[in-house]
Design brief:
Two copies of one chain form a homodimer. Chain A has two domains: 70 residues, Orthogonal Bundle (Arc Repressor Mutant, subunit A), CATH 1.10.10; 113 residues, Rossmann fold. Helices cover 44% and strands 17% of the residues of chain A. Chain A contains eight helices and nine strands. A seven-stranded mixed sheet of chain A has the order 5-6-4-3-7-8-9. The first copy, chain A, has a two-stranded antiparallel sheet with strand order 1-2. Chains A and B meet through helix 1, helix 5 and helix 8 of A and helix 1, helix 5 and helix 8 of B.
């Protein structure tokens, strides 16, 4: 099943999925676009427009079936399939992801982790074995790895990304904070910049403070 | 200095700041909207429109002065001021933030951390002392804390957020994955959903795969 969905709608899909999963846990069976919009801070028409991109399934006067939506959106996002990934860099953040992030809920699985520290060699974290960084290339060439998760220092980000891509990795989840200079071809790169989020928080906090001071 | 800047522009400011800082490190002194747009994947007119919201400072034929832009955008985002914050939950993610996240570059400072584990009590991570969770309320009431960073299990997210807000915290950086049910008043809440980022990566990876299979 293929859809031509605009990037704007795609950006909203993960949030819709979160809400559908939440509503399902609350045993809500159906919901109107208006009700959902109120909860999500979106207009009812935006929601209807978005859902129409992949089939709609709503019924006039009935609203949308929550489980159906959850399944459809989950299917579009591929959560029932499994993309294999490796974590490169087992510092605090890498360890946090391996230990606590529920990859399987999003259609992913961490099959191996890599780090340079000798004391981490052979460590097993949440079922994932840490291997020496020197074994990364061999592992990638011998196994079908879809995604490299980069949680290593910035200084090694470029060369590691390029190595991963040379070895057939198709996507990169990039926590290093840098943007890649090198040509990574048609590799899908998703950058995570926690700083953007914090700066946004700071902006609104200071704006609110300034507003109050004017009163 | 106050600006009426739309939410869409505000959302782009952190990324502009990152680029200006990067260009400064590269010793680039000036840049045209066209050149910057090419590097950032934005149109020149979008960039000019955005910069006009807070003064512009570009000169026809000259382009923009990188350091000036870095200072102006940094100033709007408040990076030279300091908002005090506490980290609540010193698991892998909390520890990652305390150890590695460069808060001061974004106008923040972590003054204390809290956790329930007895063995963490008194631990000093990157200069931040971990205190027992039982001391959270007293600390918040005795100190001027602007932001609570929630990196604790979901089960305790709501009650902790409500406690923090009752004690005067004005902003919450929320890594727990839940959306807050309770009324947090006009507290600024910034949710971090790493899963949204991973789902987006997965979507584009699978879409690319599907496209190739059709050829």
């Amino acid at each position: 099943m293929k859809y031509r969905i605009s990037a704007n709608v795609i950006r909203r899909l993960p949030r819709y999925l979160r809400w559908m999963r939440f509503l399902e846990r609350q045993k809500v069976e159906k919901i109107s676009s208006g009700d959902l919009g109120e909860r999500m801070g979106l207009t009812a028409s935006q929601i209807r427009q978005d859902f129409n991109c992949f089939g709609g399934f709503g019924q006039q006067g009935y609203g949308y079936n929550v489980s159906d939506l959850r399944r459809d959106i989950g299917s579009i996002l591929g959560v029932d399939e499994t993309l294999s990934s490796v974590v490169i860099g087992v510092g605090n953040l890498g360890r946090a992801l391996i230990s606590n992030f529920r990859f399987s809920e999003y259609g992913f699985r961490v099959t191996a982790a890599f780090d340079v520290l000798p004391e981490l060699r052979g460590a097993v974290i949440n079922g994932v074995t840490v291997r020496p960084a020197s074994e990364l290339e061999d592992y990638l060439r011998s196994n079908d790895v879809d995604v490299a998760i980069l949680t290593l220092p910035q200084a090694y980000a470029n060369e590691t990304a390029e190595l991963a891509v040379r070895c057939g990795v198709r996507g990169i989840w990039n926590f290093t904070g840098i943007d890649f200079d090198g040509d990574l071809g048609d590799t899908v790169v998703e950058d995570v910049h926690l700083s953007d989020s914090l700066l946004t928080l700071g902006y609104y906090l200071r704006a609110r403070q300034n507003t109050k001071e004017d009163i």
